[in-house]
Specification:
CATH topology of the largest domain: hpI Integrase, Chain A
CATH superfamily of the largest domain: Intergrase catalytic core
Radius of gyration: 22 Å
Strand content: 5-15%
CATH class of the largest domain: Mainly Alpha
Number of helices: 12
Helix content: 40-55%
Largest sheet: 3 strands, antiparallel
Number of domains: 2
Shape: globular
CATH architecture of the largest domain: Orthogonal Bundle
Length: 283
């Protein structure tokens, strides 16, 4: 909804600048807007979402949607031919890289929080929105690890809740990092991850953008290009590391909570492209 509102506002502003009507908009107007955004260097997915947002605004206003208009469809097809439709994939923070990211964190309150966040985001294959929404009570210790309850997520918009297992592990030591952070910050209830200023004062909840910045900063600290990483890198790192270790896809899916195994298989396939290459026996 936030993205749709942003796209709709951009469309209205563009129409105002061009002295054309935004609602109802003519198919030729939408087609021209697509061409304008294409010239600005927008990605294919962003352009397609913008058209969907404008179409949605028309439907909410009781107007006929233009999404099936031949003019608009031709413009979208031309955009796809120009840009292609392959998504821009960010690099996964695999287990070896994550260990370096953890080791580089300073022994400060911010460093302790970052270690806990990076470790849990990886161990639970969590989305950044899921990380910032966690309450301390959502993590319940069990023998051998802990159970983490996700109250709401992208694949659970109705809030039915999903529970996954979190291992402490001998390499990442996720639960130890969380315990250290909570004890140092004096957190006993409420949000698990919070902002910390440069004076060490604890603030309110983190934003999902803060998670992305923490990951990018950690990547840069170990000598990597931060632009290659995003808030999705921890989740992708768990899935990729699991695939590289030969873990069963269904077991990976129990943690990642993928509804479509086809999506999960794309990660597994990328991780095993060289390990299972047909040329191993003769190249």
């Amino acid at each position: 909804m936030r993205a749709y509102r942003t796209d709709w506002a951009a469309f209205v502003a563009w129409c105002h600048a061009q002295s054309v009507t935004a609602l109802p908009a003519q198919p030729e107007t939408v087609s021209a807007w697509i061409a304008s955004r294409l010239e600005q260097g927008r990605k294919a997915a962003t352009l397609a979402r913008g058209v969907a947002a404008v179409s949605c605004a028309h439907e909410l206003a009781g107007l006929e949607s233009f999404s099936r208009s031949r003019v608009v469809q031709d413009a979208l097809r031309g955009m796809r031919r120009t840009l292609g439709t392959a998504p821009t994939r960010k690099s996964p923070a695999t287990v070896d890289l994550l260990r370096r990211m953890l080791d580089i964190q300073p022994d400060t309150l911010i460093g302790q929080r970052n270690r806990a966040l990076l470790a849990l985001g990886f161990a639970g294959a969590l989305r950044r929105s899921e990380l910032v929404a966690l309450e301390i009570g959502d993590l319940v210790s069990q023998e051998g690890g802990a159970l983490l309850t996700l109250r709401r997520s992208k694949t659970d918009p109705d809030g039915a809740g999903q529970t996954i297992g979190i291992l402490n592990g001998s390499i990442i030591r996720t639960l130890e990092h969380i315990s250290t952070w909570c004890e140092a910050a004096g957190i006993t209830s409420g949000r698990l991850f919070r902002s910390v200023d440069r004076h060490g004062r604890i603030g309110g909840s983190l934003s999902d953008r803060s998670v992305a910045r923490i990951i990018k900063t950690a990547a840069e600290a170990v000598g990597l290009d931060p632009e290659r990483f995003s808030g999705h890198s921890l989740r992708a790192g768990f899935i990729t590391s699991g695939a590289e270790a030969g873990a069963d896809a269904l077991l990976i899916a129990e943690t990642s909570r993928h509804q479509s195994l086809d999506v999960l298989r794309s990660y597994v396939r990328r991780a095993s492209l060289l390990k299972t290459h047909a040329g191993h026996r003769f190249l």
